[in-house]
Amino acid sequence: MPRKYSRQELINLIKDGKLSKQFFSELTKEDQSFAEILKRFPNNDEIQLFDAPEAIIQKAEAISTENEKYSIKSWVVNLILDSWKTSQVAGVRGVSTTSDRRLRFEIGSCLLDLRAEKQDKKWYFVAELTGHECDEEVVIKADKIEISANESGYFEWTSSNTPKDVKIQIGNNESVSLPELSWKTKK
Questions:
Q1: Model pTM?
Q2: What would the pLDDT profile of 101-159 be if each residue is shown by its tens digit?
Q3: Phi/psi at 80 (nearest 5 deg)?
């Protein structure tokens, strides 16, 4: 196993011209990348990159080796399909297309497919979340309604109004909001 060099040792090796191609190939990958940086950006014989304290290095290693908890806090939600914004083929256009809507959102590596259909002054919603792998329960919150997936993995609910605020919640505390949509149709 190759020896791990400190930053100061690598700086001295480069400064003294002792870093041959043979010696470079025997370094660890981390030392090789650091030596490349030092060669490209000389630092006028001053140490500008200090070694972190050992306690911080140990904390970072502990964090990186812990089982990563499933997290959606930093996800961005992208609307990738809105059937009301997509022009329909001439034979499909008509009144029926304004009472049905399909939305697809990309949330990290997941896709949320949401279908809405208006019948007799009520909206019927069916959603499916794919690409999601988590042990915790997933709930869709549409305004004040909480919807859990049925046995088939679909989220189904009915409402007299279209939702203004839709969130996907994983477990008790992680949630991501979908962008607010207009439900008014152009006539």
A1: 0.55
A2: 898 988 777 888 999 999 888 999 999 988 766 656 888 999 888 999 898 889 999 99
A3: -110, -10
Closest to 48 measured CA to CA, from 18, 78, 80, 10: 10
The distance of Cα 114 from the centroid of its chain, to the nearest Å, equals 19
Q: Are 146 and 182 in contact (CB under 8 A)?
A: no
Q: Where are the alpha helices (DSSP H) in the chain?
A: 7-15, 21-25, 29-40, 54-65, 96-99
8 A C-beta contact, residue 6 and residue 51:
yes
23-59 pLDDT tens trace:
888 888 888 887 877 776 665 555 455 566 677 667 7
Contact assessment for residue 111 and residue 137, using Cβ atoms and an 8 Å cutoff: no
First to last CA, the chain: 72
From residue 147, give the alpha-carbon distance in Å to each of 138, 164, 168.
Answer: 9, 15, 10
Per DSSP bridges, beta strands 110-119 and 154-159 are: unpaired
